[in-house]
Structures are given as structure tokens and as C-alpha cells.
Amino acid sequence: MNLATAKTNIYDLPPEGLFQWLEDRAMAPYRGLQVLKWLYQRRCRTFDEMTDITKTLRQELAEHFIISLPEVVEERRSADGSSKLRLRMADGALIESVLMPEPKHSAVCISSQVGCAMGCLFCLTGSGGLARDLTRGEIVGQVIAVMGRMAEPKRLRNIVMMGMGEPLANYANVVSALAALTDGTWGTGFSCRRVTLSTVGLAPRLADLGRDTDVSLAVSLNAADDQTRSALMPVNRRYPLEVLIEACRRFPLKPTRRITFEYILIKDVNDGPDHAKRLAKLLRPVKAKINLIPFNPHAGCDFARPDEETILAFQKILVDSHYTAIIRKSKGQDIGAACGQLGGRSSCDTASAAYPHD
User: Fold this and answer.
1) What is the pLDDT of residues 293-341, one digit of tens each?
2) Per-residue burial over 319-345, b = 16 or more CB atoms within 10 Å of its CB, e = otherwise
3) DSSP letters of 334-350?
4) φ, ψ dihedrals at 218, nearest 5°
5) Which of 74, 136, 241, 314 has its CA 20 to 30 Å from the CA of residue 5?
């Protein structure tokens, strides 16, 4: 056995685990904060770089842990400036993340699982099934790895968990990773308002999420009636719209925040005036804004994108009903990095970047 593989990736160890490890060795708690800052803020790659802790502690850390980040094995750049990164985990599993530049900042779309079990018909990932959950360290590691490749890491201000997998189906690892990404003392310090988690609607978990985190919530809705949504998204058969909307209504929100509802517009499926009117009525109980995402065609799917007139007419009905309804332009379409286009071997769907703008 390779001894290195038997060691724990220190990014998989939550802070309380590190502090307990130090306590067991009669070491001061402040050493834990030093180690955490080296990992999450300075993004060190070896324990020897932790120059403000003792050589003895550095050696003991190296004996028990490794510092392992996802390896970028391929990068494709889009004409719009986006980059699709293929990342390899320590066991060889492959996922994809997308770095999306904006004029004043950048955003990264990250994954929570290798593959996906949800089986949404418009998503290329669903055809591949679920391989496994990502660990806490693999989720955080996507962000750390991307920042390490950026000329100006401070430009990365938004995280959207809209890539491969269903985040709420990997709840413990996702919540622990979010805590590391948003902690301002020892973590990477992203604003909770600028971190968005997208779910297909595992309704019972929404209450847990509202209790355990303060990140922004996005719900992949895509239909306003149970028959259409169940045909598109099998999860709706377990948690129909009545249950989902009630869970969203109860989700704790600060006065200035709303839930984002993502609605992929598919020609002749969910894009008519009646669909828009039903959507407007459905979301009345919720503090909501709506992201309209015209379908991006991909191999193996017969769905099509509506024409611009239909898209604008759908948006107008929602705006006239007093909703904020934004038509999202998916980035990276020319490199297969747009919403619903990521796929292939162990790859994923990534949703549109539903993050706050300046």
C-alpha cells in the first residue's frame, strides 16, 4: 500500500477535527487557526510552507495528513472568456468546473457529486447516473484550485454550486464545505450572499439548509404544473410542487433577499403564455425572482430552444406580474460549458450563473 494514500486529506478534516487532533497532542488551539489560514487563505501546497508554526508540528502534520487538491487536467477557453476546467480527483474521478469572468469580478461554478442521480431530461449529466459524492475537501478544493490558476485570485467573488450533482443529496459534505468557503476568520471569506446553492427541490432538506447556512438559494423549477415538471424532473414525483413551494415559503430569508427560481425554457414544452401565467400564480407565496434560461441543445436530447419572440413574451408576462425575471445568457456555449451542455465521461450539467451583480 502507498502510505500517502492512507493519510487523510487535511481539506477533508473540518476545523473541529483539526482542533481535537491538536488537543490530543497537547498543542495550543491557536496553532489550528494558523494551519487553517495557511490552507484556505494562503492556499499552501506543502506543510513546509507554514513558516510561522514549529518545525516539529509541520513534521507531525506531514506524517498524518496530505494536502490534496483536485488536479486540472484540461482547460478549454471560450470566446466569451469563460474557462471549462476538467478536474481529476485523487481516485481518478473526473468532474468539471467553469470559471466565468465579469467586468468587475469572476464567478466559479462547482460540483457536489461525481455524476447525478436526479435524471432530469434536459440535463446531459442525468444519463450517466451517480458515481459517488464529493468529499468536503474535493468541494472546497475546486475553488482553491481555480484561485491558484488565476492571475488575480481576489477577482473571484462569486461561487455557484450548480455543477455536477444535487448538493442537498450530499448534505453533510456540502454544508461543511460552505462553512469553510464563507468563514471570514480562517476560511476563504466569500460573502454568503455571493454563494448560491442550486437544488432540484429536495424539499425536506430546505429547512435544514436554512438553519445550517446563510447562502443564497436557487431552485431548479422548469415547470409550474406537476404533470410537466414530473415529466422533466423525476424528483417532482417525490416532492410535488405543493410540497416544494411550501418548503420555499418557509425558508428563512433576510429582508432584502429572495429565492431564485431557475426556469429552463424548452420549445413547445414549457414556454407558452399559459405556462408563464401559471408560474406567476405558483410563486405568489414566495419572495421570488426568476432566471429564465433558454435551453442549450446538446447531443442525445431532442429538446429545442424557443425563438426570441417567445422568450421575450414569456418574460413580459412575468414582469407584468411584478416579478424580477432575467433572461440569462449562458456562458461558454462554444466549448460545451453552458447550462445543460457539460457532459461526457464523469462530467456534469452546470446551471446559469445566478449570482448577485454589483
Assistant:
1) 999 887 778 899 999 999 999 999 999 999 999 999 765 444 444 454 4
2) eebebebbbbebbbbebbbbbbbbbee
3) GGT-STTT--STT----
4) -125, 140
5) 74
Q: Give this prediction's pTM.
A: 0.91
Could you give the CA distance from residue 72 to residue 51 in angstroms, rounded to a whole number? 27
| Residue 328, C-alpha cell as written in the block | 440569462
Q: Which of 291, 358, 296 is nearest to 331 (CA)?
A: 296
* CA gap 5, 316 in Å, rounded: 56
Q: Whole-angstrom Cα distance, residue 186 to residue 189? A: 8
Q: Considering only CA atoms, which of 146, 215, 137, 154 is closest in space to residue 182?
A: 215
**CATH class of the 71-335 domain in this structure:** alpha beta
| Measured distance between the N- and C-terminal CA atoms of the chain, rounded to whole angstroms | 51
Amino acid at 49: E
Q: Which amino acid is at 162?
A: M
Q: Which residues contact 178 (CB under 8 A, 6 or more apart)?
A: 161, 195, 197, 213, 215
- Reported as half-sphere exposure (CB side, CA atoms, 13 A), residue 195 has a value of 20
- CATH 1.10.150.530 assigned to 3-66: yes
Alpha helices in the chain (DSSP H): 3-6, 15-24, 30-40, 55-64, 136-149, 171-182, 203-212, 226-232, 241-250, 273-282, 308-320
The full set of domain ranges for the chain reads: 3-66, 71-335
